[in-house]
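Protein 1 of 2
SEQ + STRUCT:
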Amino acid sequence: MKSYKFFQVDVFTETPFAGNPLAVITEPEDLSEGLMQKIAREMHLSETSFVFPPERPEADFRLRIFTPTHEIPFAGHPVIGTAHILSTEGYFEFDRGKTELVFELGIGKIEVTRRRFSGAEECLTMRQPLPKFADYGGDRKQIVELLGLSSTSELAEDLPIKVISTGSPFLMIPLRSEESLKRVKVNLSVLERVSVVAGTTAVAPFVVDHPGAGEVTTRVFAPFFGVPEDPATGSAAGCFGSYMVTVFRLGKSKTREFTINQGAELGRPSRIYVRIHLEGKNIVAVEVAGSVLKVAEGVLKF
């Protein structure tokens, strides 16, 4: 029988049992891919992360991330949550001449630092890849059917539906009201058809009450990856910030900050902070940040 230590954290929250829970296995050693997938299914969280020594000299750790059904190349809350565990449990120290923790992931290198955001204490902050944009060329009536809504009038008619990736692609669907957002129920058979056009099965309907306030409320669904609904999605947060500065042309200052609210429908309210850096109209950096709390630790034995 072998033993593997694990930690569980709540990410993108300052309140226990809110935010997005994550299991972190810090010393997986000889675990096979099949066993890692079984452990992730056993944990039954949106993601479980496994920390390995790096294969690239510029990285501090190699991170593998599993949903209950798939390994994925990148996700936001596992990066932030794992960085918290490594920096608080003696695996890494930010304060000894090291200002950034570098992860090696399936999409490449991701850096984590400590930054202060408006309205928040100092947070662990990851720098995501620069955004890639694509217009959604499908039928808006099909989007209404996808979300289980009643008519196209519930979509924000003056805002475009886009596919955006800052490491993982999401179908970004602006809605007219939070009442519509609360009623969203994703139709899986329609999602299969929409994904052919969108190139992704991850769906992110959202509401912007006032673009100048910098607040977005969202729900994120990735059912084909074993995540029916996610309480907080760091990989989508960079997409929201990129959408805001591009669609609303909020690029007059060199940096813009946004707050993403998510998880209320699941009873796990979350707040994610986003900072977009600009040179002229061009996005030159995407930062996503949040708080983390450790809520459990234990040992897997099998």
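Protein 2 of 2
SEQ + STRUCT:
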Amino acid sequence: MKKIGVLTSGGDAPGMNAAIRAVVRSGLSHGLEVYGIYNGYQGLVANDIRKLNRGDVSDVITQGGTLLGSARLDEFKLKEVRERAVENLKSHGIEGLVVIGGDGTFRGAKALSDMGINCIAVPATIDNDVSSTDYSIGFDTALNTIIENVDKLRDTSSSHHRCSVVEVMGNRCGDLALFAAITVGAEVVITKETGYDESEVLERLQYIDQLKRKRHAIVIISEKITDVELLAQKISENTGFSGRSTVLGHIQRGGSPTANDRILATRYGDFALQALLKGETNK
């Protein structure tokens, strides 16, 4: 193997740049040519492919986002679209591909592997919802972002006898909400795994207000479960707390990656490169 490619796809995650850096520098140290594929599978189909050197990945380990860019391409499900991608790889002489992203990215890599392209996929998503992976790149940074913001909300909530309902990302996986709830000392956590019973939540908050006489409460809830603004209104109507909703949104995707994510991404990137050198694929 003499030439490899690397791309990022799907939602960005802090630490992606560290993984790209590891692939590039590990590849160069083994005498390979490394090509960056810009804007994910969309760039692969559009032949937006450029050769990378060590300088291209200097000082990126501290940066969030992805220097290669990312995009979603639903049409990649079509065989004729993937065939164009395969032709572009072959035109550059690229023999192996490292793809960095979440579950959708993995499905794309699996499809390319089935078409004869050696692919190794690196799990990078703040949602931590990639099967058989304990921690994906970006999860730790997103978790720390949530903690920082919820800690600040608790300060103001306790001053005004409020209950803050905080919606966090995670897609259909409750890891971000569960880990955040534990680390901020939330009174209530709601995820797909815990289930959602509105009356039970309100009863719990009434107990916290009337019997425990707490001046504040924090409810952490995963996205795609319920309307958090409506829940906050019902908290105001049915408990002694003044309900307030906060949707952290895409702030969870940004920021400089934590030390854990930088190390994890570096290890994943190097491991992916080693796997390609061993002739492994579809992993």
